[in-house]
Design brief:
The chain is of the alpha/beta class. The protein folds into 5 domains: about 10-110, GIY-YIG endonuclease (3-Layer(aba) Sandwich); about 125-195, no CATH class; about 210-270 and about 290-395, Rossmann fold; about 400-450 and about 505-640, 3-Layer(aba) Sandwich (Rossmann fold), CATH 3.40.50.300; about 655-740, Alpha-Beta Plaits. It is built from 21 helices and 30 strands. The strands form 7 sheets. The chain has a 7-stranded parallel beta sheet with strand order 11-12-10-13-14-9-15, sandwiched between helices. β3 and β4 form a beta hairpin. The longest helix has 18 residues, at about 715-730. The radius of gyration is 28 Å and the shape is globular. Bound molecules: adenosine-5'-diphosphate (ADP) and zinc ion (ZN) (2 copies).
Length: about 750
Amino acid sequence: MIGKRMEERYADIIVDISHENLDHTFSYRIPDHLSDRVAPGSRVLIPFGASNRQIEGFVLEITDRAKYDPSKVKDITEVVGDDSLVEQKLIRLAWWMKNRYGSTMNRALSTALPIRKKVKAVEKKNVVLVLPDEEAAQKLELFTKNKRMVARKRLLEELIKEKSIDYRLVTGKLNISASTVRYFCEENIAKIDSTRVYRNTVNKTDIMPSVSLTEEQQSIADDFRRDYESGRRDTYLLYGITGSGKTEVYMDMIESVVSNGRQVIVLIPEISLTYQTVMRFYRRFGDRVSTLHSKLSDGERFDQFERAKKHEIDIMIGPRSALFTPFDDLGLIVIDEEHEHTYKSDQMPKYHAREVAIELARLHDASVVLGSATPSVESYFAAKSGQFRLYTLTKRAKNASLPNVSIVDLREELKSGNRSIFSNKLREEIGKRLQNNEQVMLFLNRRGYAGFVSCRSCGKSIKCPHCDVSLSRHANGKLMCHYCGYEIPAVKKCPSCSSTLIGSMGIGTEAVEEQIKQLFPYASVLRMDADTTKQKGDYEQILSTFANREADILVGTQMIVKGHDFPFVTLVGILAADMSLNANDYRAGERTFQLLVQAAGRSGRDKCEGDVIIQTYSPDNYAIRAAAVQDYGAFFEEEMGYRKLLMYPPAGHILAVMIESRTDEAGEAFSRSLAQALSDGIIGRASLIGPTDATIRKIRDIYRHMIYVKSLDIDLITMIKDRAEAYFDENGNKDIRISFDLDPMNGY
Ligand code: ADP
Ligand code: ZN
Ligand code: ZN
């Protein structure tokens, strides 16, 4: 950086917005008479090249330094147009994200701007049923009889319903292999159509509300419509118990907005983005809908964004990154399961989709609807304090009642001599369901615990040499690090004291599966966790097998908590409810409550009544007690009291600053001096904690130190973050990295 004149302001200008050129910017001076009108996102006219021909560019960033010799920097000629281009809004959004969450403008821009890479347009292919209905029904009967034709049966069933299905949905969400599709073509059951004629995959006659709304649902939908049509824009929290039909309400709201010619983004956690969910939207809105998911290639993703820009679609459904769909007249953003922690990005800028959605909606004059059966404490607090409007759904839509929940005290089980992971009650109830041919889900909330190997004699655990975590035991006996993949063969003796009393602490899903097979040898058991869902399609495969009732029991981690409606599940067992309570962050209670309520909500979703058994060592814990009676209000009051006391969000804000370094000493020294610099002049308005080691001190041989800043004042937090960035620019070096996490969702 050469030359710094205080009074001058400069703009970084990009001439051609394309992803690859984001750091290819030019510096221009902002003349005084334009200083009020130039901001990130402004479209400006500039003299370019030796001939000074006038061309247009976008302002990305404003600084007080020129990139090169100030005497050679030219002036911006003029600001052109209003802020109506979608690129301008996305640049402004990126600027807002950079400031709030801390990152370079470049990273913020590459998060928010659609990628433009040279890729050939993706051909849209559909699988289309060619058999007449009657013959198709006969074929279906044939496939149904044969146990080995479940995939064919599944595909044909859907084709009979839909007639024509997007090829990517067939092979992706529906998890049908290419060879099955080929078989359908060879047998003239279906054909593949690549023309655009078939893009309209759903008959107009099918595009009808599939249900008539209940009274509760209708009054919310009507209220929203009245607001919307009278020009009122707001953030709404739709708090509706599990199975209350929130999706139906969203769809009605979406209808109000698209019928006004505006566009809608629907965020759904990636894991809930199943075929069934997507199909509900396709059925209602036809080919005006498109979906994004993390398995799309850059090219496919860009193709979807192009379609949005060209107004070929009005509704984009996807995980948090779908927020950046370049709709130019966005009217509504829906965030389903708004409490989900996947809405927080784990890469810089570490943005929260809820907050970004609200900012984006402001830029577009759009509304935001957040929905959940277990709202985040943040959102419910905002609703109670009048920042958001609260809608409540209190009844299950299909007249199903909420499940009966009972708590089993595992300490009592132990006292009575039962050392297994199943209480007597849970074992009995599982047996009953198996007899009645009903299904059971067993949920193990094992977040980061199970399988850790330690010595019962000396108490030491076997740790990864590169990361500060214990190794986990896998079925083949090997010990593995979940952070870096380091593995060693099975050990029989403690490396510290040579005792043979070495074993895994806690239980993992694998152990549950084994034990259940011993207890109920005739039951067929499926397991779903990180290990069984490594391949593309595994997740869908397990869910659809269970949904088809080809298994009696599904054992899994939090993954099984959402996604499907399984009408034949009448028992949900939560094996150790308190496992997630011991996590080291202030959201542990909230997360436990949410997981328990959501897991319980899987039971008895249809005509059969459902039961839930919560096993726990802490039956008196407020989160567990409130979850057992499904009392969100009680949970919220208690939790909020505790957040206020400690000034945790939403009572205040907390900024986690992480300093990563190659050596412990360098990290420690830098963190100390940084903490010193940050604490200057903030006494009484913010509190600074640290520096301390992160809970996991070391990952992949990189040391991690933390500084936390807490304050009621978000602007002060932002100021401190800026100060940290500046301090790092002046005093950091290449062996140190600094990153920020505002209101973190995970402990460090
Ligand atoms: P939530 O998202 O609140 O858990 P869903 O929207 O998935 O609930 O609805 C739960 C079930 O109830 C779904 O099978 C849905 O089709 C059904 N449902 C929702 N609203 C109605 C309604 N008004 N009439 C009949 N069925 C409904
Ligand atoms: Zn030992
Ligand atoms: Zn490791």
